[in-house]
Amino acid sequence: MGEVARRAGPATLTASLLAAAAALSWWRAAEYMPLGAWLDALSMHDVTDTSQMLFAYSFLPRLVVSLLCGAALGLAGALCQLSLRNPLASPTTLGIEAGASLALSVTMLWAPWLFAFGRIWPALAGGALAAGGVLALSWRRGLAPISVILAGLVTGLFCAALAAMLTLFKTQYLAGLFIWGSGSLNQQGWTVAGTIAPVLLAAALAATALVRPLTLLGVDDAKARSLGLSVGAVRLCALALSIGVSVHVVSAVGVIGFIGLAAPALARTLGARRVSQQMIWSSAVGAALLWLVDQGVQSADALWALSLPTGAVTALLGAPMLVILLLRQRSVPVVPPSPPAVESSHAPRMTYLLIGLAGLLAVLVLLAVLVGRDGEGWHLSLGQEFDMMMPLRLPRALAALAAGVMLGLAGCLLQRLTGNPMAGPEVLGVSAGAAFGLAIALFSLSTVGQGTQLLAASIGAAVALAAILALDHKASPERTLIAGIAFGAMFDAVINVLMAGGDPRAMLLLNWMMGSTYAVDGTAALASIGAAIVLFGGLLLTVRMLTILPLGRGMSSALGLNPAYSHILVLTLSAILAAMATVIVGPLTFVGLLAPHLARRLGMRHVLAELAGAAIIGALVMVAADWFGRTIAFPRQIPAGLAASLIGCPSLIWLLSRRSPS
Questions:
Q1: What is the average per-residue pLDDT within 334-346?
Q2: Which of 445, 476, 561, 584 is most buried when burial is the number of CB atoms within 10 A of its CB?
Q3: What is the CATH number of the domain that holds 255?
Q4: Cβ(83)–Cβ(238) under 8 Å?
Q5: Which domain holds residue 617?
Q6: Is the same domain home to 508 and 607?
C-alpha cells in the first residue's frame, strides 16, 4: 500500500471502523430507548418492558458477541498465517470452518444427543480432522503456501459438497442451516458472550507465549532449529490454538468466513510487522470489522425489513477492502510463478493415450444410457425400455459431457495464462461470478430463459475474471489467488443473502447451484455439445499464444505476439467456457481445477495435448458424476455438479498425496 497509509498504520483503519460502528450502534440503541434509560435497562430492567428486555438481552449481547467473534477470528487467522508463513492461510482456506460446519450437520442428523455435552465438541472434531487432512496432504511439500491452500480449498469444497448433499436430502431437518450456516449473530441472552469471552482471553494469553517462537519461526525453519526451537511443536501448537478458537466461533454463531483472512492481511498491509503487532491488530481489525458489518445488517433490517445473515454480508465489506489494498500494494511473491511447461517428446504415446481416454469416454456415455436402477435393482435397459429411456438419459449425459469439456478447457486456459497451478474457474471466482450474474437475473426478471441465463452468467464470469486479472498484469500467483478468493467470497455472499431472504426462488437457485441436469432436453444437450465443439475449435487458434504467453510480455512481444490482445482473447474464451458450463452444472464442480492437473500428471505438457486431455478428463468426470448421481441413491438423485465435487475432490486429494516434494 502507499507510504501514507503505512505511516497511518492499522490504528487509523481500526479507529475508522470503530467510529462508524459506534455511530450505527448509537442510532440503533436510541431506537430502543433514550440515552438516559440505558443504564437503568442494564441494572434494574423491567421484565414487563419489551424495549428494555430487547435492549438488555438482544441488542447489547449481540454487540458484544460481534466484537468477541471478530477478535477471535482475527487472532485465529493471524496464528494460521504466522505459523505457516503463508499470507493465504485462514480458518476458511484451511477448511477448518467447513469441517466444523459439516460435523455439526452430521451430529444434528444422526447423533443429536451429543449436543447435550455442547456443540463445541463435534465442531472441534470436524475442524481438527479437516485441518489435519490439509496438513497431511501438504506436509511432503514442506507446507508450501500454494500446496497448503490448494489442499485447504479442496478439503473445504469437499466438506461443503457433503453438507450440501445432506441439506438436499434432509431439508426438513437442516433448513435452519441456511441462516446459521451463513453466520447469524442473533442473541437471546448473554450465554454466547459468556462462552466466547473466556475462550478468547485464554487464547490471547496462550498466543502471548507463542510470540517469541513464532518470531523465530518467521525467519527460516533451519535457522529456528539451530537456535533450539522445535519447529514442528510450535507450528502444531499455533495451529491447534487457531482451530480451537475458530471452531468455538463456528459452534456458537455459525460460519463467518473471510474475517480470518482479511483482518491479518489488512493489519499487515497497513504496517503491522512484528508478530505481536500482527496478533494485536488482526484481533482489533477483526472485531471492528465484524461489529461494523453487524450494525449495518441491523440497520438494513430496521430501515428496509431485510433479514440478512451477518456472516454472508461480512464478505461484501471485507472483500472490497482487501481488493483495494491489493490495488495499492506491490506484490511480493512467496514462490515464483510456474515456468512454462516443457514440450513433450513422446507425441505418439500422447496420441494413443488421448485415443484411449476418448474411447473410455464413449464407453462411459454408453454405460450412462444403458445401465440404470429401479426398485428391483441394477439392470440393462434394452429393447423397448431402451427406446423409452434414451430420450431421458442421453440428453443428460451429453450435457454433462459438454459441461466437463468446457470446464476442463477453462481451467487449462487459466492455469496456462496465469502460471498459477491453483487457477481454475471455481477457485478464481469465475464460476461464482457466473452464478452471481444468473442469480441477479433470476431475482430481478419475471422470466429467465436459457438465452438470458447464458447471457447473465457470461457477463458475471467475464466481470469477475477481468476484475481479478486487472489488478496487476504482473501479479504473483499468491496475489491473484487472494483476489480470486476475495471476489468469490463477495459473489457468494450476495448469493447467500438472496437465498437467506425467504424468497421462494431461493430453492430454485439452490437446485441450480448444485448442478442438476434433470431438466435438460435434447435440444439443450445438442446445443451444449455444439458450443463445446465450436469453442474447442476456436481454442486451436490460441495454441501459439498459450505457448508463448508464459514466457512474459517482453518475450511475447519479441516473438511477434500482441500480449494485450492475446490476454483479452484468452480471458474472453475462459469466461464464455466457464459461464456456459456453470449454466449447465452449477458452480460447485471443481472439474476446472482437477482436469488440467490430471492431464499434466499423465504427461500431457504440449499445449494442444493438455487442452485435449483436460477436455476429455473433464468430460469423463462429469458424465460419471451424472450417472453416479442418478443411480447411487435411487430413487433420490444427486445433482451432477454436486456429484462431481464428491468424485473430483477425492481424486484431487489422491493426486496431491502422491505428488513428489518437488
A1: 46
A2: 584
A3: 1.10.3470.10
A4: yes
A5: 401-658
A6: yes
Residue 333 counted as domain residue: no
Nearest-angstrom CA–CA distance, 514 and 639: 6
Distance in angstroms between the alpha carbons of the first and the last residue of the chain: 33
Q: How many domains does the chain have?
A: 2
94's grid cell: 484451511
Q: How far apart, in whole angstroms, are the C-alpha atoms of residue 494 and residue 501?
A: 11
Q: In this model, does residue 46 exceed pLDDT 50?
A: yes
Residue 354 inside a domain? The answer is no
Q: What is the 3-state secondary structure (H, E, C) of 551-606?
A: HCHHHHHHCCCCHHHHHHHHHHHHHHHHHHHHHHHCCCCCHHHHHHHHHHHCCCCC
Question: Are 228 and 317 found together in one domain?
Answer: yes
C-alpha cell at 561: 505476439
Give the lowest-confidence range in 97-101, 157-161, 446-450, 535-539: 446-450
Q: Which of 279, 295, 328 is the last residue of a domain?
A: 328
> Which three cell numbers mark 230?
522445535
* Nine-digit cell string for 485: 478468493
**590-606: pLDDT as tens digits:** 788 889 988 988 888 88
Pairing of strands 371-374, 377-380: antiparallel
In DSSP notation, 612-662 reads HHHHHHHHHHHHHHHHHHHHTTTTS---HHHHHHHHHHHHHHHHHHHS---
Q: Which of 284, 312, 328 is the last residue of a domain?
A: 328
> 296 and 429: one domain?
no
In this structure, the answer to whether residues 177 and 315 fall within a common structural domain is: yes
CA-CA distance, 333 to 86, in Å (whole number)?
A: 11
Distance (Å) of CA 8 to CA 279, 281, 553: 18, 13, 36
- Is 350 domain-assigned? no
One domain for residues 413 and 498: yes
Confirm whether 391 is domain-assigned. no
Q: Burial, 153: exposed, middle or buried (Cβ in 10 Å; 0-12, 13-18, 19+)?
A: buried
pTM of the model: 0.80
